[in-house]
Amino acid sequence: MSFISGLLASVFERSYRRAISDEAEGHTTSELCRQLLGSHGEVSGSTLARLIFDRYGAMNSDEKQSFFEFMTTSLEIDPQAVRDTLKAYSDAPSKKSYRAFARACEPQRQELARRLNQVPGGTGQLVAMRKDLLAMLRDQPALEPLDVDFQHLFASWFNRGFLVLRPINWSSPANILEKIIAYEAVHAIDSWDDLRRRVQPADRRCFGFFHPAMQDEPLIFVEVALTKGTPNSVQALLADGRDAISADDADTAVFYSISNCQAGLAGISFGNSLIKQVVADLSRDLPNLKTFVTLSPIPGLNKWRASADPVIAAGADDTAVAAHYLIEAKRPGGNPLDPVARFHLGNGAMVHAVHADADVSPNGMKQSNGVMVNYLYDLSQISKNHEQFVSEKTVVASSEVRALSASCGSEV
Q: What's the CA gap between 316 and 407, in Å, rounded?
């Protein structure tokens, strides 16, 4: 009887979904969205959500913009309702009056996104939808409130408590390895052999954050080299034919590439949690590791040299100029101009050393004349460095780097 009941239920559900789909043929996508917002049934809701995603996937750029305009203007909050419910709550605070105020403050487009998210694969499709939205914002600033809502939802859906740290190695599924090749944003992986050199040897590690709703899509990943001493060249780290060492013989873990994978999650921070978790895991598994550093690019250096008018001492070499830039070049408000510096210093690292001819690839020469920087994660100083950076905008740097900066010229 249970088999027959299940079979009948399945037949009924398929028939019901087909009926909803047939009826939807005569409705616009915006009308389907309003139906989804008014739906209370699980089957009808998931069917409508799938239909909306299917419609969206078939849209061209102009149609997507119209869809975003609908979400922004037609599913907006009612300012008068917000004012009225706030006054009611202020006059008579209660669970009921607060609930009414909270509902009035939330635009319907947030609830639409939640209902779209109920179908398998919905999270990834919403992330892809925001990627499309971000590409339009420069020319369509009126859509920015919609992006605020996406960010608000994604900050909750992708918080650290939901993320899973997974090692990525040569035994990982091929589809994951293919995405590591595609998403590598710092030092391009040009072949499967190149990838093998980064994830297979005993002195190499790769870790990524994944979300349960997007298990085949890394959100961010970091590549790690286990070395003796602090390296001063990424070409040496990635060289074909280098001699690998035992992980137990290494004393240093080098984070040489961190890549964000999902353009639709821009502004949702994963990197600080990733590095701290990897440091903790490596410290636990390999107690011989005593030093944790990056070998990082300086992407803004040459652009700054070309556009700014700093007072640079005659004959100052590239490492001195780079040290000066990392310590002294600031954005309005006092934070470092360089985005990689802001990231690592904000995580509690310090500027440890700068190296000439560290990345002689075309991109490395274009960005910084080949100069790279080590940011040091001193586990005993991370919290202190972080607090100084956040509260006082202090760039913590080694005495060697400060001396290099001072030899370069006056403050910018």
A: 7
Dmax over CA atoms of the chain, in Å, equals 90
Bridge partners, residue 252, by sequence: 227, 291
- For residues 195 and 223, the answer to whether their CB atoms sit within 8 Å is no
Q: Which of 308, 369, 374 is nearest to 341 (CA)?
A: 374
What's the pLDDT at 17? 60
| pLDDT classification of 309: cutoffs 50, 70, 90 | low
pLDDT, tens only, 178-197: 999 999 989 999 999 999 99
Q: Which among 222, 301, 192, 293 is positioned nearest to 251, based on CA atoms? A: 293
CB atoms within 10 A of CB 301: 24
* 252 backbone dihedrals φ, ψ, rounded to 5°: -135, 135
Query: In CATH, what class is 2-157?
Result: mainly alpha
Position 4 pLDDT exceeds 70:
no
What kind of fold does domain 301-408 have according to CATH? Answer: Aminopeptidase (3.40.630)
| Spatial distance between the Cα atoms of 223 and 204, rounded to a whole number of angstroms | 8
> What mean pLDDT do residues 62-76 have?
98
Looking at domain 161-294, its CATH class is alpha beta
Domains 2-157 and 161-294 share a fold: no
Rounded Cα distance, 389 and 294, in Å: 18
Domain boundaries, the chain: 2-157, 161-294, 301-408
Q: Is 229 helix (H, G, I), strand (E, B) or coil?
A: coil
- DSSP readout, 120-186? TTHHHHHHHHHHHHHHHTTT-GGGHHHHHHHHHHHHHHTSGGG-EEEE--TTS-HHHHHHHHHH--S
